[in-house]
Design goal:
466 residues; alpha/beta; TATA-Binding Protein; Rossmann fold; 3 domains; elongated
Length: 466
């Protein structure tokens, strides 16, 4: 689907002219075609279309042409992650049979409502939010049926399939078919980078553009990349073997290391590398604390997935006095259940692995603990060279004639030897402070002066203050 209103919405309006909620045509006057199309789209999204309305059971009975007690209902509650995927399936069928279906609001006073799904494109994708949809026989089934979807924020979100009791044998297969299609290749969120947050008291997903970072932008010991590739092989090169041997294709990795050593940079590089092949979910701390189970419940809808849980020591710290907090219990129970799923990789990060509850770090929950060390002298020199190369390249972006030769003018090995026990973030700040003091005229002496001066180190002030 594209970012336009599905043609089923326009079809339900009748003659094609935009209609007010009262059902009267809107007089648009002498407007251009593009303006008219925009207004028609807004009217449709806001529910200003002429449709039959009614409570789902009685409305379904009317169109199924049976008494109310002859209507069979098949309810499927759905999470905030699953329901939009079901809605996307319903939208495709509504488009396919647009000239045959009937659309109504879920109550007499309500017009059909469309929701907007962020799929990472220039425009969000409209999907059914709250509406009844009647499908005649020989459309999605050999028999007539009604799909009633409701994403009400504070109610029981889900979809109900209504059929005549004489046709109720089609109910369960129809519900299963929608769910199967929701997890198929047509799922609009598969292969994207998603932010999992909490909005209005429920789990919400929004798309994020991959940063474009690559492994070349991250200086790490080769052994760290080797271990990361081994972890990723669970759902790539070793996937079929693990499945055949019954060993499962879900795994957990904990990245540890001091602040600034590059844990987040590693995740950004992996997200760029894996996007389109896998779905990447970046979970906020609130999601990890309160919605971790809901996040994982329907995660298989997204295909092979990497879930990133940063700074989990804030949630899974050691229990006090033998008591286990509710968030920790939920976190541990959820990780226990991940192993029963397929193609789910969990990457957690922490600055202090000793602060984690021991129960969180065991095979089946976290299978591998991988430490990212602070860089040695050689790695520090490589990082400085990388940072200076970026500055040199960007200095001539607007005018190639203004490009400064920086890298060759700085002895990065000498600067790397002037500091010890520092992180990549520290080295970046040394470069940044040197630019602040001297602009683009960087030299070995100036960088050494900044590095040895220590003013780049963040430190709390010492002394007495009023």
């Amino acid at each position: 689907m594209t970012g336009t209103v599905p043609k089923s919405t326009a079809a339900s309006a009748g003659a094609g002219a935009p209609l007010a909620p009262t059902g009267e045509p809107l007089d648009l006057g002498p407007v251009s075609g593009a303006t008219r199309e925009t207004i028609e789209t807004l009217v449709a999204l806001l529910g200003g279309v002429r449709n039959a309305v009614g409570e789902p059971p009685s409305w379904s009975a009317k169109y199924l042409q049976v008494p109310l007690n002859e209507v069979a209902a098949f309810r499927r509650l759905a999470s905030a992650l699953k329901l939009p995927m079901i809605g996307a399936v319903l939208a495709r069928y509504m488009d396919e049979f647009a000239d045959r279906i009937v659309v109504a609001g879920v109550a007499p006073e309500k017009a059909p409502r469309w929701a907007l799904l962020d799929t990472g494109g220039d425009h969000p994708t409209p999907i059914p939010g709250q509406m009844n949809v009647y499908f005649p026989a020989d459309t999605i089934l050999p028999v007539p049926c009604v799909a009633s979807i409701d994403d009400y924020e504070w109610g029981e979100r889900g979809i109900i399939y209504y059929l005549r009791r004489a046709d109720q044998s089609f109910g369960e297969p129809l519900a299963a078919r929608f769910e199967q299609e929701a997890r198929g290749d047509n799922n609009p969120l598969r292969g994207l980078v998603l932010n999992a947050t909490v909005d209005s008291g429920r789990l919400a997903m929004s798309t994020v553009k991959a940063s474009g970072a690559s492994r070349a932008d991250v200086v790490l010991p080769e052994a760290v990349w080797t271990e990361l590739d081994l972890f990723l092989s669970t759902t790539t090169t070793r996937r079929e073997l693990l499945q055949r041997l019954g060993l499962g294709t879900s795994r957990g990795l904990l990245l540890t290391g001091a602040p600034g050593v590059g844990k987040t940079s590693v995740i950004r590089a992996l997200a760029t590398e894996l996007t389109q092949r896998m779905t990447i979910i970046l979970a906020s701390s609130e999601v990890v604390t309160d919605y971790i189970r809901e996040l994982y419940d329907d995660i298989e809808l997204l295909g092979p997935t990497v879930v990133v849980l940063e700074d989990i020591d804030l949630i899974t710290g050691r229990r006090r006095g033998g008591e286990v907090s509710a968030p920790l219990t939920e976190f541990l129970n959820t990780l226990d259940g991940v192993r029963s799923r397929q193609d789910v990789l969990t990457v957690a990060t922490t600055n202090d692995p000793l602060a984690l509850d021991a129960a969180a770090i065991r095979p089946g929950r976290i299978d591998t603990v991988l430490e990212i060390p602070k860089p040695d002298r050689s790695a520090r020199a490589d990082m400085l060279r990388l940072y200076l190369t970026r500055i040199e390249e960007r200095s001539g972006e607007q005018d190639p004639g203004e490009r400064r030769r920086i890298v060759g003018g700085v002895d990065v090995d000498a600067v790397a030897g002037a500091v010890d026990d520092v992180s990549g973030a520290d080295l970046h700040e040394i470069v940044r402070r040197t630019v602040l003091e001297f602009g683009q005229d960087l030299t070995t002496e100036r960088m050494l002066g900044v590095a040895r001066g220590g003013r780049w180190k963040p430190a709390a002030p010492v002394g007495n203050y009023l």
